[in-house]
Write a structure and sequence with these properties.
alpha/beta; 7-stranded mixed β-sheet; about 260 residues; globular
Length: about 260
């Protein structure tokens, strides 16, 4: 049993028994609102230049374009306009920054994705995008400390992996006390909505209210455009030809007792 480098996936699929499983996680970009350099208009216009389809096509481990924030292994029932695209020609009268930073943790996949975003924003909005990458620990420290802040507004790359295999876990990052949110933005009344959502996780009688809360949260994320979900993760494994069965859940937990 071996985990595969995403960029080698196509090759290894031809060499043995490849297994692709859903993963309760979202790959996304977010605007750093702590600097006060982003407004709703320029966030929306820049977000629309992130070509999710090109990114998914370039990344073998992507599970599909993210139409919402929440992983498709759950049922959201929430409408979304996150897939809107534009060539930028109608944005010329909007006040946009002439330069910006796109920061990300260093690996080959993120480099490819960042270069696609850099290309499209330059082509459509004529904004010079500086790419800045760091190793994982240095990257997290810089995000937490605000070290990336400066004269240029910042867009950063991150992923959210649900800590719980339920709807509540998908949105837990948006609680005001969650330290995994580096944007400086939380949904209005987000804490109250999350508190209510946590109390109806296993209550089938209140599934209607659960869907209402999810739709509200998804609507706020789509409207504010602070967060731009790009694609949903999948898990990729390569098994020996001798393997007869393999089991893992959407949190990435492998059940060896049921794998042989």
């Amino acid at each position: 049993l071996t985990k595969i480098n995403p960029l080698e996936l196509s090759y290894w699929k031809t060499k043995g028994k490849g297994v692709e499983l859903p993963y309760a996680g979202t790959y996304y970009f977010a605007f750093d609102m702590r600097q006060g350099k982003w407004n709703s208009e320029n966030r929306s216009h820049i977000a629309k230049q992130i070509d999710k389809f090109s990114i998914v096509k370039s990344v073998d481990s992507a599970g599909g374009v993210a139409e919402n924030w929440m992983s498709p292994i759950f049922s959201s029932g929430a409408p979304s306009s996150l897939l809107e695209r534009s060539d930028g020609r109608s944005f010329r009268s909007v006040s946009l920054p002439s330069q910006m930073k796109l920061v990300f943790d260093s690996n080959s996949r993120n480099q490819i994705v960042a270069e696609i975003v850099q290309r499209d924003i330059k082509k459509n909005l004529n904004i010079d995008v500086e790419l800045v990458s760091r190793d994982w620990k240095s990257y997290l420290h810089a995000l937490m400390s605000g070290a990336f802040e400066g004269q240029k507004p910042v867009l950063y790359r991150m992923g959210w992996l649900c800590p719980l295999l339920n709807v509540y876990g998908c949105f837990l990052m948006f609680h005001s006390k969650n330290k995994n949110n580096y944007s400086g933005w939380v949904p209005p009344n987000g804490d109250g909505l999350l508190s209510e959502l946590s109390n109806i996780i296993d209550d089938k009688k209140n599934l209607k209210r659960q869907k209402e809360i999810v739709a509200t949260l998804e609507g706020l994320i789509a409207t504010e455009r602070v967060f731009v979900p790009v694609y949903f993760y999948t898990q990729q494994f390569f098994l020996s030809q001798n393997a007869a069965r393999f089991t893992a859940n959407a949190l990435g937990q492998i059940f060896l007792d049921y794998s042989y």
